[in-house]
């Protein structure tokens, strides 16, 4: 099984195809790399590189190296998005820049398949005021109550005499 590292990359327009990118993830006791041979040029695009999953949760390093030329990684210095990641170029820290990386599972996911994550994150957004179990309960109630209430409103609207005022 593999995961995919997704990176937002700005590729300059030009006549030559953009360089292949080597994506390498390393951590103590872990190393995986992949090459992304082709992707669009002249646009901001998401590239996806298949890498082997780490044996567990690790703090590590992700290196993106063009095999020739240059590309720009798109990051952010927006305070809500900053993490413990340190962006470096040629081994030198780049202050005020955070690179966005997402590790995803292979295949597609559905909203219903991610309900646990949704409930957990909804709880986290409240600072713990709404525990995860209550977020689950609210999700289930919303899923059941919404169609029932819409159906009841239609039934009520259809049962009224068009000429009556009440």
A few lines on this structure:
With 166 residues, this protein is an alpha+beta fold.
Description:
By secondary structure, this protein is of the alpha+beta class. The protein has two helices and eleven strands. Strands 1, 4, 6 and 11 form a four-stranded antiparallel sheet that branches. Strands 3-2-5 form a three-stranded antiparallel sheet, with no helix packed on it. Strands 7-10 form a two-stranded antiparallel sheet. Strand 8 (88-89) and strand 9 form a beta hairpin. Helix 1 packs across helix 2. It is elongated, with a radius of gyration of 24 Å.
Tally of DSSP β-strands:
11
Number of helices: 2
C-alpha end-to-end distance: 63 Å
Largest sheet: 4 strands, antiparallel
Q: What is the helix content?
A: 10-25%
Quote the beta fraction: 25-35%
List keywords for this structure.
166 residues, alpha+beta, 4-stranded antiparallel β-sheet, 3-stranded antiparallel β-sheet, 11 strands, 23% helix
Topology:
Elements (H helix, E strand, L loop, with lengths): L2 E8 L10 E7 L2 E7 L7 E8 L9 E6 L5 E2 L1 E2 L11 E2 L2 E2 L4 E2 L1 E4 L10 H11 L6 H28 L7
Antiparallel strand pairs: 1-4, 1-6, 1-11, 2-3, 2-5, 7-10, 8-9
Helix pairs in contact: 1-2
